[in-house]
Amino acid sequence: MKNLRFNYRNVFFCAFLMLTLSACSKKDDMKLDDTPDPVDTPSVPKPYSITEDFDAGTKGAYAVDSVQLLTGKWTLSDALIGNLAADAKNGTKSIRLRNGYVAMNFDVAGLKTLYIKHAKYGTDATSTWQLLMSADGGKTYTQVGADISETSTTLVTDSFSVAATGKVRFQIKKIGTTRINLDDITFKGTGDPGVTVGAPDTEPGDSPGTGTATPGRGTPIAGPDAPSATGDNSNLLMGNPSNAESAAIMADNYLIDQHYYTESYSMSQGHPKWVSWHLDASNITGVASRQDNFASFTGLPNSWYQVQSTSYSGSGFDRGHNCPSADRTSSVEANSSTFLMTNMIPQAPNNNQKSWASFESYLRTLVLSGNEIYIIMGTYGTGGVGSVSTTVTRTINDGKVNVPANVWKVAVVLPVGNGDISRVSSATRVIAINTPNMNSIDADWHKYIVTTRDIETATGYNILSSLPQNVQDVIEKVKDSGN
After folding, report:
1. Cα 43 from chain centroid (whole Å)
2. Active-site residue 278, yes or no?
3. Nearest one of 62, 115, 54, 37 to 89, comparing CA atoms
4. Candidates 259, 278, 321, 446; catalytic one
5. Do 192 and 363 form a contact (C-beta atoms < 8 A)?
C-alpha cells in the first residue's frame, strides 16, 4: 500500500508540474502577442439554404434529357425549361412539366425542409402532381405527403418536412396531361449539404492541351458583371497580401488586374503567387457555360515568357485554375478570363479534381445560402507529385514553369450586405485550407483546414491586411470547423 500511495503522489505531482509549465509557456506567448488565443467551442453544424431557380439551364424540348443546372444535373422527362409569358416563374425561367417527371441526379445531406414554388401553366386546367423521395441514390422512391392539386395561376409555395437522416434526392411526378410550372426549389438543412454547385472546374477536363497553342489574349473587357474596381465587392478589398505592384521591375510580384480577379504574377515561376476575387450570387448565374479557351496572356511586359495553352502537355499536372471557371459564369467574358494561363498553376490532378473541386463547390453553396465571400488563393514552395511519376517534379515546360509544393486558400464569409470591411469582426467566419500538391492527396478538403496565420507563416504574406489589426489577430488564429 505504501508503494501504491507513493505512485499516486508522483502522478499527481507530475500532472501539477505539467500544468504549471503549460501556464508559464502561455504567459511567455502572451508577452509576444497580447491578444489571447480564441477559445475552442464545440462544432455546431451551420444552417444552409440552397435554391435551384432553373435560370441557368437550357432545354427547349419535352424529350427526356439530363441538364446541368446550378445545383447539379437534373433529368427532365416530358418537361422543358420555359421562358414564355405564359410560364409562371420567379426570374427568367421555370420548369414546364406535362406528363412526366423532374428528378435530381444528385443527393443532398442534412436536409430538414424542402420548398417548391408551383402554378398552372397559362390557361391549362387543374391537374395533380406528387413529390417522391429516394434515400438509396434513386433506386427506389416513396411519396412525401399527399398529392398536390394545381389550381393557382400564380406561383405558390408548399413546404415538405424531411424525416430522413442520410442523403436524399427527389422526383416530382406529374399526373395528367395538363401542364404545370415549377420554380425555386429550395433545400434547407444543416451541415455540409454535399451539393456540387456549378459545373465542376475539371469537366470536361483540365488535362493539358496538346498540339498547336491557341492564340493569346489580353486583359478581358470589364463588363457590367465585373466586380467593382474599389470598395465593396472589389477583388482586393481584403488587402494586397504581398504588396504587389504593376511595374516591370516587380517581376516576381507583378500586380495584374484582370477585372474579374486580381493577381500577383511571378515571371520566374510562370504562375501566380496569389489570386484574389469576390464571389456572390451574381457571379454564378450560369449565363455562360465553361469556355475551355485556354490561352496565353499577352498583357505581360514584352520581354517576359508567356506560358502557352500547351505548356503543361505531358507533365502529369492539370492546368489548375486559381479563380475557378464555375465562379465566373455571369458572361462569356467573365468565364473566358479564368482560362488565361496566368490564372493557372501546375496542379496534381487529384488535388485539382477532387479536393479543390469539392471545396470550391462548398463555397458556392455558402453563396446560395445568402452569403458573399472574399477569396484569396495561392501557392508556395517548389516540387509536386503529378500523375505520370511518383517522384517530385520541380519544374515543367523546360524549366519555365515552377511546380508549387503547396496550394492554399483563405475565404472570408459574410452575409450579403454593404460596408464589408466594417462588417468583418472577431466573429466573422474565415475558412483556410493548405494542401500538398500531390496526386496522393485525400479527397476530403476538411483534412487540410488550417488557420490563416499558418498560411501567413508559410508564405510571409499579410493576407487580410486591410482589416484592423485587432480583428486580424483574432480571426486569423481561428481554425474553422468545416461545417
Report:
1. 21
2. no
3. 54
4. 321
5. no
- Which residue has cell 502522478? 11
| pLDDT tens-place string over residues 84-98 | 999 999 989 999 999
In 3D space, the residue among 246, 248, 257, 380 whose CA is nearest the CA of residue 304 turns out to be 248
Q: What is the Cα–Cα distance from 369 to 300, expressed in whole angstroms?
A: 38
Place of cell 500500500: 1
Using the predicted structure, report yes or no on whether residue 39 has a pLDDT greater than 60.
no
| Percent of residues, the chain, with pLDDT higher than 90 | 79
Confidence of residue 202 (pLDDT cuts 50, 70, 90): low
Q: How far apart are CA 418 and CA 237, in angstroms?
A: 13
Most confident range (mean pLDDT) of 10-19, 93-102, 278-287 is 93-102
pLDDT for 357-376, tens place per residue? 989 999 998 998 889 999 99
For residue 295, list its beta bridge partners: 340
